[in-house]
Design a protein that fits this description.
3-stranded antiparallel β-sheet, 7 helices, 14% strand
Length: 306
């Protein structure tokens, strides 16, 4: 049984090596507090939960913050009297299975903007902009002391807004179907981020940026398994945790089966399934095999990870 999760190695893009040597670089994995940083502004790269939470802490500490915005969505911390995780369970958000995802790589999308700090609160990038954070598009590379940016800030902001709108609509529809007597709620509509000019480059020196924090997720490392059991993304080849090798199973990995597979809340369900498989399958090891063509058959990547 392999239950190591997917967060073995901090992921930092190769073009980080092109940043000037005087720039302090940290991954979110090693960031602890603002006191670690050099005087000056900070560029946070990545706007899923870690990136947004770090950016918020920094600007509330008085630090000038630039935030390279990705495609993660947003949900309210609370809505209509309940925590968003409570609603996520009720509306089946956590029960979505891996075969419902739009693409195999959707397994690796960042978690929606949200915070548990101070009892939990909503994170809204438009509020960040209102508070003085300079939002920019995707970080694409470095050229002679300048950050090259994708002009996709407003597109990504619109996606985050739509994610929240779709989420609360699902809650409202659930409340109506269940005939729950809960007061209606209208969330604030902010648009400050749309007022910002799209930048295609950012001069580090002119912007006063002396720190870059990479909130860019992690690479997986299953190299200790001396069998061909991962796909091109490094993700285990399996079907609901069952690999093609006798006795080799995976559990506790995001999107192993559904949206809660990588959460303490949901891992028990997958573990129960794996234990049942382990105790009921009496096939000899010789009957297990990796298919000659992993993209076909019962173990295909299209079947298990699409």
């Amino acid at each position: 049984m392999i239950a190591t999760g997917l967060y073995q190695q901090p992921k930092i893009p190769s073009f980080a090596a092109d940043l000037p040597p005087e720039i302090l670089q940290l991954h979110s994995d090693t960031y602890r507090n603002p006191q670690q940083l050099l005087p000056g502004a900070v560029l946070v790269v990545g706007s899923a939960q870690s990136g947004c939470q770090i950016a918020e802490e920094l600007y509330r500490n008085g630090t000038r913050v630039y935030l390279a915005v990705g495609r993660a969505g947003r949900v309210p911390r609370r809505y209509r009297g309940k925590d968003t995780n409570w609603w996520s369970d009720k509306i089946g958000f956590y029960d979505r299975t891996v075969d419902e995802l739009p693409t195999p790589k959707a397994k690796f999308f960042g978690k929606p903007h949200i915070s548990g700090k101070d009892g939990g609160h909503t994170l809204n990038l438009h509020q960040f902009a209102r508070d003085g954070v300079r939002l920019v598009g995707h970080f694409q590379g470095v050229d002679d002391g300048k950050i090259i940016l994708a002009p996709d800030l407003k597109e990504n902001l619109a996606k985050a807004d739509k994610f929240e709108a779709d989420f609360v609509k699902s809650i409202d529809e659930y409340i109506a179907r269940a005939q729950m007597k809960i007061p209606e709620e209208i969330l604030p509509v902010l648009r400050d981020g749309f007022d910002l000019e799209e930048l295609i480059e950012l001069d580090l020196k002119s912007a006063g940026i002396s720190n870059v924090i990479w909130a860019t997720s992690y690479d997986f490392d299953f190299s200790f398994v001396k069998l061909p059991v991962v796909d091109g993304d490094g993700y285990p080849i399996q079907k609901r945790g069952v690999s093609a090798y006798a006795g080799l199973h995976f559990v506790g990995i995001p999107w192993l089966h559904n949206a809660k597979s990588g959460l303490l809340y949901g891992v028990g369900q997958d573990a129960d399934y794996i234990v049942t498989k382990m105790t009921s399958d009496d096939r000899p090891a010789s009957e297990y095999r990796i298919p000659d063509e992993p993209d076909k058959g019962w173990l295909s990547q299209d079947l298990c990870c699409a």
